[in-house]
Every structure is written in structure tokens, then in C-alpha cells.
Amino acid sequence: MRADIVIGMQWGDEGKGKVVDYIAPLYTSIVRFNGGPNAGHTVIADGRSFTFHHIPAGAFMRKKLLIAPGMLVNPEILNEEIESLKKVASEFYLKIDIRTSLITPAEVELDKKIEDLKGASSIGTTLRGIGPAYSSKALRISPRVSDVLSGNFDASIYKKLYNIEFDFGAWVQKAKKTLSGYAFDVREELLKSLENGEKVLFESAQGTLLDPIYGTYPYVTSSNTTSAYAFVSSGIPFKYAGKVIGVLKAYTTRVGKGPMPSEMPESLAKTVRESGKEYGATTGRPRRIGWLDLPALKYAKEINGIDEAFITKLDVLSGLNELKVAVTYAIDGKETDRFPSPEVLERAQPVYQSLEPIPKLGTDDISHIIKNGWISAPVQMKNYVDFIEENLRVKVSYVSLGAERERTVKVD
Length: 412
Ligand code: IMP
Ligand code: MG
What we know:
By secondary structure, this protein is α/β, with parallel strands linked by helices. It is built from 14 helices and 20 strands. The chain has 3 domains: 162 residues, Adenylosuccinate Synthetase, subunit A, domain 1 (Adenylosuccinate Synthetase, Chain A, domain 1), CATH 3.40.440.10; 77 residues, Adenylosuccinate Synthetase, subunit A, domain 2 (Orthogonal Bundle); 162 residues, Alpha-Beta Complex (Adenylosuccinate Synthetase, Chain A, domain 3), CATH 3.90.170.10.
């Protein structure tokens, strides 16, 4: 009877996949509701590792996996994803809403073309056709799942408008083969499930600061990444809203261009990137690295209505010689803890507070903490989490100390 939402509080790659897998046992269904195959949600559990692009990360927990219509699906990538998942998960229940818009090869090509045209001011997209496909949907020319199934797709407009020569007939046939076994009225199923007292988890992709309205426009993605979109996308009324779980990485990362006030100098970023394996799960690109950014997190908390937080990758900060948090920004000589509009953010200078560095944690140390609980964590680590709780005024419920499912500690 309640729909909780997992939200990324930064620029994506906060570790939402791990969090969704970890809390999945509490829910009947897991629903992806935004983005498309630009996402890469990695789950490492039971000796298996899988990066999800469209399919919700609850797959290993044998949950109902649902794709809401406000998402985008690229049938070719989805087909590969389904085939790969079959190799590691024997059975899974997957349904895709019939209203879901599809990404065609025209949009993938257009994404590249627009990035090339923009040149120095390119966004650094994942080149998965996301922006153009949400545009085609707004233009009311792109096919939805139901159009492919009924053969009701007229590609002539595409050919003229996007100036693309492509065998759309063959594409539609292939897409139909992939989608026909999964197409469903997801909205109706979800509503019934909630009416029957079941619990639902919405899994967002990307992060709050990549939201096309509230993020660092134009360096953003093209679907909403904030909690309210879960309801718009799935057609579920707000009255079913449960809690909003914010996922925040212990430091900041960003792929692609755009302002990032707390970005570290490359010499230090390199160390964190290597130990945190900060390379894009979808594109393999090295991620930009920064210290935790409190004004940005406060903003994300406000927009999403974050009820509790899950801090990931805290182990990665252990062993660094320094530990800093951007607590405010200095903008044109004034200090503020408000997150400004993107063009102002470009000028924001982070004001840091230094905390006592966390001593290096080896595998044995982490196992010790997992076994003996949060109380046994190093005092510097507990101080860091307390500092975040106090400044953000959000309860931190769990801390993640490694990619594997087991490496999770409840914060008491
Ligand atoms: P697009 O979503 O491919 O159009 O990319 C727009 C911006 O969002 C770029 O900066 C991408 O790097 C970023 N982005 C898109 N998806 C993700 C994601 O899943 N994780 C992190 N960044 C992303
Ligand atoms: Mg990712």
C-alpha cells in the first residue's frame, strides 16, 4: 500500500543499483521510471555481477520488475540485456508498459550529430539517443511499445525530418520480437498491487543534479530525475507515496561536462578514481571526482523530500591524507549554503571544512565492521557520518563499505 522511492542525490552513479538490491526484500515490485539505457546500475551479489540498463536492479531478489511508461526503451539494447540476464538469473518477471516510448536508431544518430554540432559546448551525453528520443516523444512522432506491436508506426516523418536512411520495417519486426512477451499495462498492475496492500519500490536513474529542470541545465539529462516524476511516469496517484530514500556517495562524481564546484585536483582525483573504480558503467568514461558538496545535497533533499539517506562507498575515502566537505559556496564575495542557478554555480567557490581523515581500511577491517556493527567502525568514519546527518538534517540509515551486497552496515 506504499510506494517508496530511491533517488540519486548527486550527478548519478551514487550506487542506486546496490541500494535497490539491498532493500528489495521489503517490496513486491521494483519499478524503473525515468531515463533509459543511459543508466548503468551494477549489482554484485551471490557471486554474480550484473549491470542493468533498463531492467530494475531488483532482478536478483526475484521481484516483479516493471518498466513505467515515462522511461525510454531501446529494444536492441533491451534484447541484449535480457539475454545476458538469462545467463545469471534463471527466472525473472519483467513487464514493460505498452505506453513506453522507444529509442530508434534515428535518435542515436541524432544524439551524436547534436553533440558534434555543439562542439566545445557539447554536453558529454552517453550517446544513447536520450535527448532526441524524449524530443521525438514531445513531437509526437516516436513509436511506443503498443505501436510496434500493432505495426502502427509510420517512419516516413522520421526519414524526412531526421534525414535518415534506415530499414525501419526490419527494426520494427525485431523490436516486436523483443517486446511482445513483456508488453503489459504496468500502471494497472501497479495500482492493483498497491490497492492490495503490497509495497512498491521506485528506482530512479541518474541523479537530482541531472534533472532537466532543477539540475545544472543545459548539462543535464532529458527526463526528470526527482521523486515526483515516479508518480507522473507510472500513473500512480500521490496518495500512495511512502518514503523517499536518498542515495549519496561519500564524495561527489560527475560524468560529462558542466559545473562541479567541489571538484578535486587531478592528482588526488586519480587516487579516488582508481580505488573507487570511478569509470562509467555504461560508457567506460573516467568520472570527475570531488569532495562531498553540502549545498548541493541540501538542495537535493528539498526537491525530493528525502526522508532518509544511504551513504555509499565510504570505504573509498579511507586512507586519504585529508578529508574535506564543501559546506558553503563563496559567490561574488558572499558566502551561501544555497545551491544557485547553473550560470551562477559556474562562479561558486567551495568553502571547505576539514575533518579528521579516516584511517585506511583493509578487507579484514571492513569484515570486522560488518560483523560487529556500526559501533565498531573507526571514530573518524562515524564522525563523518554524524557530520553529514547534522548538517543535512537527514537520518543516515545505512552505510555501504564495498560493492558487494554484504558490505552494508546499518547505522544505529
Ligand atoms: P544523456 O542522458 O545521455 O543525454 O547525458 C546527459 C548527461 O547526463 C551527461 O553528462 C551524462 O554523462 C549524464 N548521465 C546520463 N546518464 C547517466 C548515468 O546513469 N549516470 C551518470 N551520468 C549520467
Ligand atoms: Mg551509473
